[in-house]
């Protein structure tokens, strides 16, 4: 198939790195090392983008801080998935007006999915005049030239092209973690689920070349990363736009063949494209974690149809059965939307029934939020907010009960876990993850950090497990 995506040439990225060096010459004259504050909202795609933003900033001579007050440059990487996410950003950005008044030299930058929406850009132009730079995900690779322009000639800058999107390799990365890492395998989405803003703000699906992905994973494995998550809005359509004959199962197989002691995870999978071949590959590949995040959104076929999910409840449940037959201890998680326009009480019951049949380990539940420009935002919605809230509470109560039961079944078992952090709960020393990604709070010495260790599970609640190093 013809390669649809524009690939940003290595010369273009090299030119941006040259601009970074020019900025580093400027920042070197500022006296103390200038600091950058990067704040990230939204999904792992945005986390991965922020790691590239930090990569560029480091090359410009910036260090990093968690305090806006100390920062010479503030970058807020935003999410547009629900209204609530946007309101939080507007609130936080609004509060920066005082800081900008006190310290006009501080550069305030807003980027990410939210600013790909024209009405948002309009609002920032008019009412958030202390914001210096606004750029969308498609323009991220040009961050150095944007910062340079602001440093030498001041003024405001807006770069939010509405385009199908591109692929840029070779942008420097500063990762947030030394144990777990994200690797984007593709960008964008072609699915246009009727409620979702992502295809409008992230452009069309485009896959990175397998050799670029494999090189990145090899590098991470060599650096000692233990948990690598392959990212895309719908990883199951990986490779459809590439010349070479490869699909996501094929990619998983190749990543699995990379030597090293690490686990492979991936997200998100769309049920319509999750195939028997994928399940068999998961079962066969020893590094692929026994966990699948497979959003079903709603349990009723009429709702699924107007959501434009392109699968039925029966098809979904059949896939879950096939997967459980291959990997009996598979850990399953999902996303659910409550209160889609017109969803009746009986239709909502179908969602509860899916929970009872599948018995997810964890569920991410959302109340429908109309996104301007999407078809669902125009649909009639006679259901009251109270009714939606009642349904939402019933859903979370049922899931809490299931999570608690599933977690209780771990107690007494010894599970090989990745020790991935220090516990913020004083009664425990460490945090760990089971292969299925369940959180475990662990008693034990911090020398175990970054290792796969046997943990004896001694307790559980609906959120997490508790245990001790064996
Ligand atoms: N690409 C992923 C989802 C990305 S968005 C997938 O297809 O599964 C993460 C979740 O946010 C979605 O699965 C959905 O449950 C929820 N979501 C998306 N748009 C929403 C909206 N308008 N209102 C409420 N929840 C929404
Ligand atoms: Fe949104 Fe659907 Fe694409 Fe997921 S698959 S990002 S829910 S349009
Ligand atoms: Fe949000 Fe954009 Fe991710 S809208 S969920 S940050 S792709």
Topology of this protein?
Blueprint (H helix, E strand, L loop, with lengths): L5 E3 L1 H18 L7 E6 L3 H16 L3 E2 L8 E6 L4 H20 L4 E6 L5 H10 L5 E3 L7 H11 L3 E3 L6 E3 L11 E5 L1 E2 L10 H5 L3 E2 L2 H13 L4 E5 L16 H9 L6 E5 L8 H9 L6 E3 L7 H6 L6 H14 L4 E8 L6 H14 L3 E6 L17 H24 L5 E9 L7 E4 L5 E5 L8 E9 L4 E5 L1
Parallel strand pairs: 1-8, 2-3, 2-4, 4-5, 5-6, 6-7, 9-12, 12-13, 14-15, 15-16, 19-21
Antiparallel strand pairs: 10-11, 17-18, 17-20, 18-19, 20-21
Helix pairs in contact: 1-5, 8-9, 9-11, 12-13
S-adenosyl-L-homocysteine binds next to strand 15.
Tell me the major beta sheet: 6 strands, parallel
Low-confidence stretches: none
Assess the beta-strand content as a share of residues. Answer: 15-25%
| N- to C-terminal distance | 52 Å
Q: Note the total helix count.
A: 13
Q: Which geometry do the CA atoms define?
A: globular
Average pLDDT reading: 96
Q: Tally the beta strands.
A: 21
CA radius of gyration is: 23 Å
Strand order of the largest sheet: 3-2-4-5-6-7
Ligands bound, unique? S-adenosyl-L-homocysteine, iron/sulfur cluster, FE3-S4 cluster
Q: Could you say which structural class the secondary elements and strand pairing correspond to?
A: alpha/beta
Helix content: 25-40%
């Amino acid at each position: 198939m013809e390669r649809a995506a524009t690939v940003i040439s290595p010369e273009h990225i090299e030119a941006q790195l040259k601009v970074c060096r020019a900025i580093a010459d400027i920042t070197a004259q500022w006296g103390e090392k200038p600091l950058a504050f990067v704040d990230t909202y939204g999904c792992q795609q945005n986390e991965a983008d922020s790691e590239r933003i930090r990569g560029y900033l480091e090359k410009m001579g910036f260090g990093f801080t968690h305090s806006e007050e100390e920062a010479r440059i503030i970058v807020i990487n935003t999410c547009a998935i629900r209204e609530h996410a946007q309101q939080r950003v507007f609130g936080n950005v609004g509060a920066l007006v005082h800081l900008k008044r006190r310290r006009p030299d501080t550069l305030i930058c807003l980027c990410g999915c939210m600013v790909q929406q024209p009405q948002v850009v309009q609002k920032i132009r008019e009412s958030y005049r202390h914001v210096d730079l606004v750029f969308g995900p498609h323009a991220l690779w040009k961050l150095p030239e944007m910062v340079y322009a602001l440093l030498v000639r001041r003024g405001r800058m807006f770069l939010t092209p509405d385009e199908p999107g591109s692929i840029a390799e070779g942008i420097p990365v500063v990762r947030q973690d030394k144990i777990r890492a994200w690797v984007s395998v593709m960008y964008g989405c072609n699915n246009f689920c009727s409620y979702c803003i992502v295809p409008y703000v992230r452009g069309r699906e485009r896959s990175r070349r397998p050799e670029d992905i494999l090189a990145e994973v090899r590098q991470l494995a060599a650096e000692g990363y233990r948990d690598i998550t392959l990212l895309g809005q719908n990883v199951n359509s990986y490779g459809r736009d590439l010349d070479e004959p490869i699909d996501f199962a094929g990619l998983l197989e190749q990543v699995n063949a990379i030597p090293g002691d690490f686990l492979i995870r991936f997200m998100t999978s769309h049920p319509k494209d999750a195939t028997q071949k994928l399940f068999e590959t998961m079962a066969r590949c020893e590094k692929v974690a026994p966990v699948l995040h497979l959003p079903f959104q709603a349990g009723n076929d009429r709702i699924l149809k107007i959501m434009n999910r392109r699968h039925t409840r029966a098809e979904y449940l059949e896939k879950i059965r096939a997967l459980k037959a291959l990997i009996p201890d598979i850990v399953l998680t999902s996303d659910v939307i409550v209160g889609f326009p017109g969803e009746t009480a009986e239709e909502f019951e179908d969602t509860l029934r899916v929970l009872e049949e599948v018995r997810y380990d964890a569920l991410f539940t959302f109340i429908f939020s109309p996104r301007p420009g999407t078809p669902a935002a125009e649909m009639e919605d006679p259901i009251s907010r109270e009714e939606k809230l009642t349904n939402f509470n019933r859903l979370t109560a049922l899931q809490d009960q299931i999570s608690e039961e599933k977690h209780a079944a771990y107690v007494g078992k010894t599970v090989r876990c990745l020790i991935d952090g220090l516990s913020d709960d004083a009664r425990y020393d460490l945090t760990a993850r089971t292969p299925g990604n369940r959180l475990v709070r662990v008693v034990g010495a911090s020398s175990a950090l970054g290792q796969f260790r046997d943990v004896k599970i001694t307790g559980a609640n609906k959120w997490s497990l508790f245990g001790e190093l064996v």
